[in-house]
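// run 5 | inverse folding | seed 20
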């Protein structure tokens, strides 16, 4: 694939690029209501692009993956979140903010990165694609209920991020991710109609791979000893709902929030009652609480990756491989037959 990928380095390098002269003809921004109100705005010059490639800025890895897979050689993709950086904690440099102003397209998930949400709102980027508006976001019952206790609190009830009560982790459900992929494909077709046929072909191929991935999850998790798993934060609600599982998380939607002592006790009881064997943690956030809970309850630990970034520690080189590794970990933890 002839797409430049930006590797780990100085933050400013993630948005650096060499470009020829750009045409600056101003055209009106057209709203594509078929993709959902507020999901997409687009405009382009006579050929849809200024220099032969669409300059796409992705907020973090799941959006970068979609842009690269669907855009192929017709897009130049950069990401705002370096590998190894926890996306929720992202702050933007002045250069990144400037890039958002002049990019051909911005692809992001509202509610994950407040700094990105604010900058996109103020950006004059020609095409803005909010992935969450291309599928259905929900308030899931698997999020931890709010308990107030002296000296501590549940993470979800005091989430610092503006999730609006709805889970933004849509990419962890392969079915929802496929819906987003279809919307992204249509957005790129609109922004660059000259290569619309290629975008449709690439979208169909990606959706096929995601459908196959979903099939593997459905088959692999159909018959398990328990349906309950404990995760470090509430990232896997859509995945759990899709495949008939129950997610019990230590923290809420914000991975940096601290659980109450009451929540830890609840999880210990849940583990005992539901035959939970494993506490899952993530590679990009501290595993201290997860391992403490596991030690106190006599449980094992393993990684369940929210696929927010690919690093040397990831169990795979791309979204599909890491999700297959997640399936293997879940099957083991849940006692798949």
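// decoded
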């Amino acid at each position: 694939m002839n797409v430049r990928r930006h590797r780990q380095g100085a933050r400013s390098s993630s948005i650096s690029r060499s470009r020829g002269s750009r045409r600056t003809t101003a055209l009106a921004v057209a709203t594509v209501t078929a993709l959902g109100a507020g999901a997409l705005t687009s405009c382009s010059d006579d050929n849809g692009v200024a220099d032969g490639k669409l300059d796409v800025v992705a907020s973090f890895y799941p959006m970068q993956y979609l842009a690269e897979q669907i855009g192929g050689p017709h897009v130049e993709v950069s990401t705002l979140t370096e590998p190894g950086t926890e996306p929720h904690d992202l702050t933007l440099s002045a250069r990144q903010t400037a890039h958002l102003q002049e990019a051909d397209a911005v692809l992001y998930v509202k509610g994950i990165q407040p700094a990105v949400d604010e900058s996109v709102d103020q950006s004059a980027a020609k095409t803005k694609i909010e992935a969450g508006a291309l599928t259905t976001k929900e308030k899931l019952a698997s999020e931890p209920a709010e308990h107030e206790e002296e000296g501590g609190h549940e993470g979800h009830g005091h989430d610092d991020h503006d999730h609006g009560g709805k889970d933004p982790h849509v990419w962890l459900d392969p079915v929802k991710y496929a819906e987003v992929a279809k919307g992204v494909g249509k957005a790129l077709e609109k922004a660059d109609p000259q290569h619309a046929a290629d975008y449709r072909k690439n979208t169909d191929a990606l959706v096929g791979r995601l459908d196959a991935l979903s099939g593997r999850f459905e088959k692999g998790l159909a018959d398990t000893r328990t349906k309950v798993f404990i995760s470090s934060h509430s990232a896997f609600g859509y995945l759990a709902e899709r495949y008939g599982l129950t997610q019990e998380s230590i923290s809420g939607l914000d991975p940096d929030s601290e659980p109450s002592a009451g929540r830890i006790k609840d999880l210990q009881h849940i583990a005992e009652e539901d035959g939970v064997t494993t506490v899952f943690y993530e590679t990009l956030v501290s595993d201290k609480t997860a391992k403490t809970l596991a030690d106190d309850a006599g449980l094992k630990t393993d990684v369940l990756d929210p696929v927010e970034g690919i690093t040397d520690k990831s169990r795979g080189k791309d979204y599909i491989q890491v999700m297959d590794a997640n399936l293997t970990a879940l099957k083991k933890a849940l006692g798949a037959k």
